[in-house]
Amino acid sequence: MRRLLLALPFALLPLAVAHAHDEHDHDHDHTALGAHEHGVAKLDVVLDGKTLELGLDSPAMNLVGFEHAASSDADKAKVASVRQQLEQPLQLLGLAKDAGCSIDAQELQSPLFDAPAAAAGKTEKHAHSDIEAHYQFTCSNPGKLASIDLAPLFKAYPAMQKINVQLIGPNGQKGLEATPTTATVAF
User: Fold this and answer.
1) Range 12-26 average pLDDT
2) Per-domain residue ranges of the chain
């Protein structure tokens, strides 16, 4: 499923080198493309023929409001709620209806989604939890997909102030910044 997204870090290597000086020295494994920064998420978008792939990587703080293992009932409910929202990407990402995009596969990953026993066993050094969501769509009419509206994503998660978007589509490759006021990402 992630064949297109796997190629993305290599395609964007020059950008990663340019941003290397922004890296924070955290003790966890992040790609060179993004330090863990609250309020900021990363979105990789690849449109190849009829296949649209998206990879969202966000600090958990942006989505659930905390990064520790969910122990209280309220925390567990919040994590479950966010997971349920992320399992419905067509409600978080505005895709043109006439592009006919339907979800083929999705994968959600986060230490917060692990069983509580597994999360409790982790050292406190892993205090920075991320939530990653990978989606693959098939679009029956990809020519109608001129942009992606991220406004529903910003509305669902008000703590998210900026999304760094890396996009590869029919018009080539570009990197841009989406915010609640400039939430539409054009191909």
Assistant:
1) 39
2) 3-22+31-186
